[in-house]
Structures are given as C-alpha cells and as structure tokens.
Design brief:
Layout (H helix, E strand, L loop, with lengths): L1 H49 L4 H56 L14 H50 L6 H28 L8 E3 L1 H19 L2 E6 L6 E3 L1 H17 L6 E9 L2 E8 L6 H4 L11 H6 L6 H11 L3 E5 L8 E7 L3
Parallel strand pairs: 2-4
Antiparallel strand pairs: 1-3, 4-5, 5-7, 6-7
Helix pairs in contact: 1-2, 2-3, 3-4, 4-9, 5-6, 6-9
The structure holds adenosine-5'-triphosphate and magnesium ion.
The site of adenosine-5'-triphosphate has 23 residues, from helix 6 and helix 9.
Length: about 375
C-alpha cells in the first residue's frame, strides 16, 4: 500500500511542483523585464507634473520594487509548495485506497474466494472500475458454482448405471444370475446409456460454452421439421401415437444450421413421443407472425405442472426421475435444444395446462433477411 501511495504521491507532487515553478519563474521574468520600463514611464509622467529631476529617487525606487517582488515571490512559492504537498497526499489517498482495495480483493479471488466485492464510491472512473471488478467477481462466482454443480450432477448420473452394471457382474460371478443373453443385454443397455450420457454431456458443455459452430444458410423450416418427423415416424407408429404435420404453405426461409435445427426437432418430437401414452397424438404446426417463424410441437401426453414447468430447461431436470430414466432420459435434451435455438437468435418456450393435459413446445425463429 505504502509503495503505491509513495510512488503516486511523488508523481502527483512533482506535477504540482512543476506548475508552481513555471508560475513563479514566469512571474519573476515578467517582473524583471516589464517592471523597470513601466516604472520609468510612470516616473516620467510624474516628473512633468511635479517639474523637477527625480533621477536619484528613480533608481532607489527601482531597487526597492525589485526586492519586494522577489520576497513576495519567494514567500508565495513556499506557501504553494506546502499546499501542493498537502493536496497531493490527500488526492493520492483518495485514488490509492480504492485501487489498493481492488488489488487485495483480486488476490483473494485468485485464492478461490469468489464472494469478494469492493466498495463502489462516487461516480468517477474509479467507481466504474470498481463496478466492473464486482461484475467480474460475480461472473466468476457463478461459473464456479455451475462447475461445482455440474460435477455433482454428473457423478450422480454416473452412479446409477455403474452400480447396476456392478451388481449384474457380481450376480454373474456368484452364479446368482445366469450367463445368458438377457443378462448381458442388461449390461449392454446400461453401457449404451452411459455412452449416450457422455455424448450429451459433451454437447451440453460445447453448447454452454457457445462452441458449437453453426453452418447457417437460408432453409425452409418445413425441411428440418419433415426430416425429424421422417426419422421418428416408425417409432410413433410402433407406440401407436399419431403424428400430424400442419405446416402453412410457402413458409419463409430462416437462416439456420439445418442439422442443428433437425436435432432440436428430434429432441422435441422424441420427448412428445416419450411422454405421450399410446393412442395419443402429436401435432407439429408452423406458421409466421411478425418477422418470425413459429413452430409448435403439441402433444396430448402426461403434461407438466406449473412448478415443474419452471425448471424444465435446467440440465438434468426430470419431472419423474424413474419414468424418464427408464426411457433412457437424462434431462439434458431440452437444455441443449434451448441453447441451440438461442444460438440462432430464436426462443424456445414450454407450456402446459397441467398434468395429463398435454404439453406444447414452441420454437420461434427470426425470418431470414
Ligand atoms: N412433451 C413432454 N411432456 C411432458 N413432459 C415433458 C415433455 N418434454 C419434456 N418433459 C419433461 O421435461 C424433462 C426434461 O426433458 P429433457 O428432454 O431435457 O430430458 P429427458 O427427455 O428426460 O432426457 P434426454 O436428455 O434424453 O432428452 C423430462 O424428463 C420430462 O419430465
Ligand atoms: Mg428428452
């Protein structure tokens, strides 16, 4: 602290001191050259008025005047220097304390104490700096919190399939489980789930970091809606859920990465299929409204209550943990989809009148310019 203060204080003091010096010197020079001639003129006019020779008086006056001016200059220079010392040390303190505070806070943040904040005083540039500093600390704290939560979530997700594989293996070793295809199929099932989870996690981390490259081009929304529907059509038929497409003719193009938008549609349709019992129906409609293309996936499935609806886009969030897990879901699909839609400048929202009353997911995309 003292070092900074000393250095800054010295700089400030010298800048004041130089200004004082320049002032004193220019005053002295002006007095030296200008005063005698001014005095001469003045005396000359007095001579004519008073009528007489004032030569001796003249040089005396000049001498006295010069001494007086020099004395005055010396005293005022001394007073100004003392004032400069006082002001510079006051200003230094005002500037140095916040800087010092930030320096110490940043050191504590570097040690992992993300709750560190500095005081914002006044409205000057230093206050701006303090504000940006606090903003940075807040972002760091959030990132750290997300990191911690992600590790916890991932560990939790890995535990279930791993312990199930372990128990099958133990059963096989102890001879409790028969070494037959069905037993191995169980293990394979869990391994596939782990693989899918790892893949989804990779996607998620890239999406959250904004690192998914988009190959955007003008695309008719009907193209990716139909592509996704075709890919899932037989699964819908298999489960006995009707899939209807209601697209208005001549939809305007959107500037998107068609593969990524297909992925979003696959997620939404996959969910609609998974959470709609046999005999139900899923409708995909697309239309335009005020420079936007709106795509809605509406199902007649199990619905979502308001309290769950709020969290539906959070990663690893599943309404019914056991039901979704049985279907292989890990609660990441919607999180990734939302990121993907937002990367395209669009929005993804969910709605549901309540449990057992179906749900709808709406994607809004800006129309290509
Ligand atoms: N159409 C829907 N109807 C009712 N609930 C839904 C629907 N879509 C999603 N949900 C709920 O939202 C949760 C999160 O969906 P999300 O797609 O993110 O995960 P998931 O389907 O469980 O797993 P996955 O990561 O494999 O997609 C689901 O677990 C489910 O509870
Ligand atoms: Mg899903």
């Amino acid at each position: 602290m003292n070092k900074i203060r000393q250095r800054l204080g010295r700089k400030l003091f010298f800048s004041y001191f130089i200004i004082i010096l320049v002032g004193v010197v220019s005053l002295a020079i002006t007095a030296e050259f200008h005063a005698p001639s001014a005095l001469d003129r003045h005396m000359a006019s007095m001579e004519t008025v008073m009528g007489g020779n004032m030569g001796g008086m003249m040089s005396d006056l000049n001498e006295n005047f010069r001494t007086a001016v020099n004395e005055i200059l010396l005293v005022s220079a001394a007073i100004a220097t003392v004032t400069a010392v006082l002001i510079s040390s006051f200003v230094t303190r005002r500037i140095v304390s916040p800087v010092q505070q930030m320096k110490e806070a940043s050191r504590r943040i570097a040690d992992g104490r993300y709750d560190e904040r500095v005081q914002v005083i006044g409205e000057d540039e230093l206050a701006d700096l303090a504000q940006s500093f606090n903003q940075m600390a807040h972002t760091l704290a959030q990132t750290e919190e997300r990191r911690r939560q992600l590790i916890g979530d991932v560990a939790h997700e890995l535990r279930t399939p791993l312990s199930s594989i372990k128990s099958v293996m133990e059963g096989l070793q102890d001879g409790v489980l028969p070494a037959e295809p069905a037993t191995f199929l169980d293990v394979q099932h869990e391994v596939s789930r782990l693989q899918r989870l790892v893949h989804d996690l990779e996607e998620l981390s890239r999406a959250e970091a904004g690192q998914i490259p988009l190959e955007r081009e003008a695309v008719n929304p009907a193209a990716f809606i139909q592509a996704a529907s075709e890919r899932l059509r037989w699964q819908f038929e298999d489960k006995g859920v009707a899939l209807r497409l209601e697209l208005v003719d001549a939809l305007p193009s959107v500037q998107v990465d068609a593969a990524r938008m297909t992925q979003v549609m696959l997620n939404l349709l996959g969910n609609a299929l998974q959470y709609t019992p046999s005999g139900g129906q899923v409708a995909v409609s697309a239309w335009t409204n005020a420079n936007k293309v709106i795509i809605t996936v509406q199902d007649t499935g199990i619905g979502i209550s308001a309290e769950h609806l709020r969290h539906i886009f959070e990663r690893f969030y599943r309404v019914d943990k056991s039901r979704s897990r049985a279907g292989g879901g890990s609660g990441i699909g919607l999180t990734i989809s939302k990121h993907l839609v937002e990367m395209h400048g669009g929005r993804l929202i969910a709605a549901s009148p309540g449990p057992n009353q179906g749900s709808s997911f709406t994607v809004t995309l800006p129309i290509a310019a």
